[in-house]
Write a structure and sequence with these properties.
about 140 residues, mainly alpha, Arc Repressor Mutant, subunit A, three-stranded antiparallel β-sheet, 6 helices
């Protein structure tokens, strides 16, 4: 039994690296191992707050790793682990692609802004220049 709990802990830690929170991982693992369950079954089994459980189930569903049956009560199911990991990896890749495009756009904007447009203390302070003449008249 100890070995199974140790493996479960390792799975949870890895899911955290894929972007799930601790409670999201708990719910995903529970659904993945116990099959379709209603939200009340989930929060009772895992002893999580009811509202948080509903929120997490909606988040996991919106991330595409949990599905909801149109039944009464609604039953939630976890996608198989390999599909879940692929979905999470693809989501991160999309974020990186978006950041890469934003990087290019920001560099273009940066190059279009001339330095004289930026207000600094140098442009706001008054300056005085002293000119010394030739002592030829003394």
């Amino acid at each position: 039994m100890y070995e199974y709990k140790l493996n479960l802990q390792k799975v949870t830690e890895q899911l955290l690296k894929f972007g799930l929170t601790s409670n999201q991982a708990k719910i995903y693992i529970y659904l993945g191992k116990y099959g379709p369950r209603s939200a009340p079954e989930v929060f009772k089994a895992l002893q999580l707050p009811r509202t948080e459980t509903y929120f997490i189930l909606n988040v996991l569903e919106s991330r595409g790793i949990v599905t909801a049956e149109l039944s009464s009560p609604t039953k939630y199911s976890a996608l198989p682990l390999d599909q879940t990991l692929s979905t999470l990896v693809n989501t991160e890749k999309e974020k990186l692609d978006t950041l890469e495009q934003q990087k290019k756009d920001l560099i273009e904007l940066w190059d279009k802004v001339p330095s004289y447009v930026i207000e600094t203390n140098e442009t706001k302070t008054e300056k005085m220049q002293t000119i010394q003449g030739n002592d030829a008249y003394t």
